[in-house]
Write a structure and sequence with these properties.
55% of the residues lie in helices and 0% in strands. Helix 1 crosses helix 4 and helix 3 packs across helix 4. The protein contains four helices and no strands. 18% of the residues are buried. It has one domain: Orthogonal Bundle (Cytochrome Bc1 Complex, Chain D, domain 2).
Length: 101
């Protein structure tokens, strides 16, 4: 493999990793981690469990649940709406959550 290809592959990995951390930072900034964790149930399900339940086809519906809230999906505790999350941010969060498989 040529050096230029190696550099491109490395840069892609760094950018992808930076995006993943950016979306985790967004989850922290929007207070999502008060009720969720990546790998364990807190008040709500872990993001790994959410990623197991849903597929990429469900990304828009998951983003909508982030903004509007939901109830009865993971038990009796409802997820309240998060009015501080824009639809664009919810899409980023949903994509990040679904990538936690």
């Amino acid at each position: 493999m040529k050096l230029s290809h190696l550099i491109l592959v490395a840069a892609t990995g760094i950018l992808a990793n930076g995006i993943a951390h950016a979306d985790e930072a967004l989850a922290k900034a929007k207070n999502c981690l008060a009720c969720h964790a990546v790998d364990k149930k807190v008040v709500g399900p872990s993001y790994k469990d959410v990623a197991k339940k849903y597929t990429a086809k469900d990304e828009a519906a998951l983003a909508e649940k982030i903004v509007k809230g939901s109830k009865g999906v993971w038990g009796p505790v409802p997820m309240p709406p998060n009015a501080s999350v824009t639809p664009e941010e919810a899409g980023k969060l949903a994509k990040w959550i679904l990538g936690q498989k």
